[in-house]
Design brief:
homodimer; about 450 residues; Molybdenum Cofactor Biosythetic Enzyme, Chain A; Alpha-Beta Plaits; six-stranded mixed β-sheet; 15 helices; about 25% strand
């Protein structure tokens, strides 16, 4: 392994009972990766002394950098800070900067500073405090680790104690689990420190976003190119709801040569895949659509029934989307379809709310009401209830329109309510993109 | 530990580079928990033989049930299936049921069945095949595991090989990483099998949802009750954007007595917390609002600017929301605010789009245009751009209205664009709930 190895330990019962989805690990991994640090393992354990100690022992043995999130709150289910303090052989002392910051936060929030909050200002005496400007619990770093037990597991799975490694140079960092606090500490303190401290080969990614074909089809099509890839370039398939992202990852000491080489391979693959290539950059569909609208100088309007505003939400996740997005009429009731989008009452009565005719009138209505150049309209039955023989659960009608043309299409999704909504949003955006890219 | 211990291994480079957020583990943990199976560890490793073998060795040693997700796709970055086959001492053979299912899927999707797809029909000869009706890659189960090395780490962190454990009864299950395929296999095959096979104490949860106060405040307020909890009942604090959920978890052989005991404790805590209690059930805010609207027989309409449809999306995540939700006018442009919501042009010109006056007119406009009993309107600057001295990034004005009253409030969020949107949605829903619960 030529890169620096890192491990992530996530602490918290809420992760093990599934109450919380761990988004921190992905964020940390992505940002370490950009520096050329490989996350080799991620482990989640409960708020439990033995499990935490075991994870620390193992991950410190297996990686140079260990990042810990979670377990640093004010309430009694949190045991991590005293344990870390003990693990690294120090004791807890009140840190004046942290205490002043805490009192300031409590004053600002108009809350009394209680005796139990005092504990939040305590940090292990032998750590470097990583200031948490977004919250109360500071981050902590230990730079020279006396590993209590250097447990080493060799590639052939033999377990041994590795003597003489007791003073190996390692970095262990503990941060609170609240995502924006963790992110703030990583950005302000951890990433700049790691960047300065560790050297490694450049690691670069290049991505091709495709739509409309599956992994196997693509693999068959680019087989010869894939087999010809040199050892320092890897290709990964990342499928996601009707789309497949292909990611080339390269490692080399010569960053500029690597960039050129990756771009050449990316070009060859994209040329071979032709029409199914949506973008040659790792962008979400909403950004791809936004860039295309911006380039054309056109405005978009939506008419959403079953998606309930989800497509509008995705479109407006992109900074600057007001330059090309006028808005969405979320016409969940038929009354709103008629009153606001001016769908004919007899269209709804004769064909139903989930029909080609209704969705076409919703699209032309959105064009007019939202004064837009393009419109996307969606009406369907996401389930689990509300299906009929004629319009079963999972049926979603879509229409895209400009001032000259209306195109309609029906989809049938077979997942649960939330996944059907996500698929409808993604397929709708894809249909829109094909429409104004004139690819359909 | 009285409960059955399970471990989850997630396989895939995409998890270690942070391309994908692991939602599978939380789903699995939540559903195992309901059965009374404790997830004691979750580990994520890359598509790499040594890491996978090491994780298998360790997790099989530390848990009775090991669930593996990921690494089972048709493309060349997937090495898990042959490795598992080898690990459990079998070889790959074509499974006729899987092959027939595969061919059916390819026919239905109008895709050619390619030579490399044949590999997808292969399964280790010594496993039980778990049928995957939602996708191509089957699940696999090994019921009697010959653990290659029984690595045991005792509570005092000593590592030893435990002889005689080589034939310990364990269950190892491998499933594809695509969430809806994993969920389908879990629901149809894995959960019923585990429920029948393992006995354990009943495990019950009771939740109290609070809003408006922090963890420390709550902890101080209920300290005496918390300290008086018996050993078999645990209390956890789960903070989330302006809300804190309190979860009581109890274990006992006597399920009925436990339920009564938990409900009594829940009642005492809720009574002590009084006004800040939003619900005595673990429900998201959108469901709490929906239930309240349904009980009152009232209809809701939204006027969303900066949230872009996100609140409508959340409200419509709830099955049956059409009974109380008419729709949302996502008025991203000022033109739509004026044309559709009939906000006075001079209000926008004089006070700006992000102002108390504009948001109040948006709310009364939504009441009228969407013919609703209650309306919530939101207009703000989420950032990172678009802020001014008067209206800095993070400023969000909200209004709630019925036919008699309009209430307005300004918030200032300090996170990134996406988090500011989430906070705005949550605070908006909370404001709405307080308004029609007459708690403000």
């Amino acid at each position: 392994m030529s890169n620096i190895a890192a491990a992530i330990i996530t602490i918290g019962d809420e992760l093990l009972i599934g109450q919380t989805i761990d988004t921190n690990s992905a964020w940390i991994a992505r940002h370490l990766n950009e520096l050329g640090i490989d996350v080799v393992r991620r482990v989640a354990v409960g708020d439990n002394r033995e499990s935490i100690v075991k994870a620390l022992d193992e991950e410190i043995a297996g990686a140079t950098i260990v990042l810990i999130t979670g377990g640093l709150g004010p309430t009694s289910d949190d045991i991590t800070k005293p344990l870390l303090s003990e693990y690294f052989g120090g004791k807890l002392v009140v840190n004046e900067r942290v205490l002043a910051h805490l009192k300031e936060i409590f004053t600002k929030r108009n809350r009394p500073f209680l005796e139990r909050n005092m504990k939040q200002a305590e940090v292990p005496e032998n750590c470097t405090v990583l200031f948490n400007k977004m919250g109360t619990a500071p981050g902590m770093m230990w730079e020279k680790v006396v590993s209590r037990k250097s447990l080493v597991i060799s590639p052939d799975s033999k377990v041994s104690r590795s003597p003489g490694e007791d003073h190996e140079e390692k970095v262990v960092i503990a941060m609170p689990g609240v995502p924006f606090e963790m992110i703030s500490i990583m950005q302000d303190e951890v990433l700049p420190m790691l960047r300065g401290r560790f050297f490694s080969d450049a690691l670069l990614h290049r991505t091709i976003v495709t739509a409309g074909e599956g992994e196997s089809f693509i693999a068959e099509k680019i087989q010869s190119l894939e087999e010809a890839l040199p050892a320092h370039i890897k290709l990964a398939y990342l499928p996601d709801a009707g789309m497949v992202k292909l990611r080339l990852t390269g490692r080399s000491a010569d960053k500029e040569a690597l960039a050129k080489e990756l771009e050449a391979r990316q070009g060859e693959i994209a040329d071979l895949l032709g029409d199914i290539v949506v973008a040659r950059e790792d962008l979400p569909m909403e950004k791809i659509i936004g860039d295309a609208l911006l380039a054309q100088g056109k405005m978009l309007g939506l008419a959403e029934s079953c998606t309930g505003g989800f497509i509008g939400h995705l479109i407006t996740q992109v900074t600057g989307s007001s330059k090309y997005f006028n808005g969405s009429i979320v016409s969940y009731s038929n009354e709103v379809k008629h009153n606001v989008l001016v769908v004919q009452q007899e269209t709804i009565d004769n064909y139903g709310a989930v029909s080609e005719q209704t969705v076409a009138e919703m699209a032309t209505g959105a064009l007019r009401v939202l004064n837009s150049d393009y419109a996307l309209a969606v009406s369907g039955v996401l389930g689990p209830d509300g299906g009929t023989d004629r319009v079963p659960v999972g049926t979603v009608w879509m229409a895209v329109a400009d001032k000259e043309t209306v195109k309609t299409k029906v989809f049938r999704f077979h997942y649960n309510r939330q996944q059907n909504k996500e698929m409808a949003a993604k397929m709708g955006m894809l249909m829109l993109w094909k429409f104004f890219s004139r690819k359909s």
